[in-house]
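Reproducibility note. Readers wishing to regenerate the assembly model reported in the main text can use the exact inputs given here. Chain order matters: entities are listed in the order in which they were concatenated for prediction.
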Amino acid sequence: MPHPSTRILALAGGVGGAKLALGLAAALPAEALTVAVNTADDFEHLGLSISPDLDTVMYTLAGIANPETGWGRRDETWAVMDALGQLGAETWFRLGDRDLATHIVRTRRLRAGARLSEVTRELAQRLGVKCAIVPMTDDPVRTIVSTDQGDLAFQDWFVRLHCEPAVRAIRFAGAETATPHPALREPRDLRGLVVCPSNPFVSVAPILAIPGVRNTIEGLRIPRVAVTPIVGGQAIKGPAAKMLAELGHDVSALGVARYYAGLIDGFLLDRTDAALAPAIEALGIKVQVTDTMMRNDLDKRRLAATTLEFVDALASSLRHS
Amino acid sequence: MPHPSTRILALAGGVGGAKLALGLAAALPAEALTVAVNTADDFEHLGLSISPDLDTVMYTLAGIANPETGWGRRDETWAVMDALGQLGAETWFRLGDRDLATHIVRTRRLRAGARLSEVTRELAQRLGVKCAIVPMTDDPVRTIVSTDQGDLAFQDWFVRLHCEPAVRAIRFAGAETATPHPALREPRDLRGLVVCPSNPFVSVAPILAIPGVRNTIEGLRIPRVAVTPIVGGQAIKGPAAKMLAELGHDVSALGVARYYAGLIDGFLLDRTDAALAPAIEALGIKVQVTDTMMRNDLDKRRLAATTLEFVDALASSLRHS
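Running the prediction on these inputs yields the following structure tokens for the assembly.
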């Protein structure tokens, strides 16, 4: 008798990924959800090891994310930042007081030789997160954005320069020698793979760039679905639309679906973009039209439920194909 | 014509030293005061480089010291500490939010290869301190307290164990290979040397333990005075009295004067202890009886003025001897 295939593996970046992960966590038993998170926008700042996407996912699943900023912790204060400014330190990357504790603990553990996946598990446990949050790799991978102003480290481009320099290309330094997390290298007992509504180019692409991950996903015989990060030609948050345009893609959900072609079996398209469904289905990708905007927790749970139903529907069609 | 001898070199530890340094700073032009500070109770904690005595002196001279605790900054908040506790990190050494910014900047600069003296100068300048605050050395020196419970790192004994284990001996790991700060190695244009009312065993002794410092001070032909840290057989703050007893000294200002014999020409004795003056003078040390308790800024300025007058009075007697 085959082992029951019960697990959902979700690929996530920051805010959008974290929101759907929260919906999935509400819909699934804790042991049935693994969220594999982009770490290519991690960086070292003020001597601290900062993992923005891991923290956004962790804080969101712990119920302590800041709903206004989309990053950091809720009920945050800024005393350290103010004092850092007084001492002449850089303050363009805002680190709240409570958030800083995370970076202090992470930095100390990493310096002591712990793996990022261990530290993430410890932190998440302390914050009461039940499901598994795993970094895409324990090795350092860093997104470099080639722009009209030269090559920029991701956070320089994203935060310090407010995404303004036009993007020419993106690469993931260190990816070629990184080892994927076991959850990505040898996914087991999967019911389905969910590509969260995260930025395809700087959240999902780095995960796929780790050697073996793309091949593994291409070879999976379970439903693989992506939730659109683009609605009505706009990114819900962040620079995904700007990147689609500057990298020569269609600035639409269709552009994203084309980017994921070969990797996914299904695409969750927003109702606004229903007219794009035939063009996406022509790529060999099934489409589920639904409301993809996650304004509140009910939206997140509803979208997660729709995603899981889509996965299960695809499973029977995969079995019959 | 000889260069005018105008500078005061003060040796200081934490609270008591910082208070007298503030009085001296009010009495002297900025360029006439150098405060050489103990760094043997520095330590690494939560991955940060912490210099408690340097910071107490710096915060005090900047007017931002916390008057209630005797350490850290005034108007402090504790959000990072609370969050560190939530994450399971050690919280026995209390680090305020604003204070943490100092440690973050120091740690980053030291890791980048800066000397502690450079970092201290940068931080003090940023906080508006005008006189020179220098670490006794740029090299790591660490106080180890041998106790009835074994050898303990200083902050373990001092903060975590509340000075409870009985002290058998004290040593300064790394002192033997440390290079003194130039202000201690080759003091120039000195009007006088002031040993502040700091703990003789763990604040002043480490400075004297740096190779060459004791010899240099012994050879100085300018007045060298100490202000008593013991009044009425009690330490004004901290474990000095307990250490005097456990290390077999007289628990009194006389015990301290004996400890400094050969190094100082004058001793500022509290009025409470005036009866000890003859015994101290019998050591070949001149005595000035005065009020040594520094309860407020006026006390600090008054004690500093008395100390400077004593220095100048000793100068004429040294010239005539």
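We highlight two features of this model. Chain A has a mean pLDDT of 95. Chain A has 13 helices and 14 strands.
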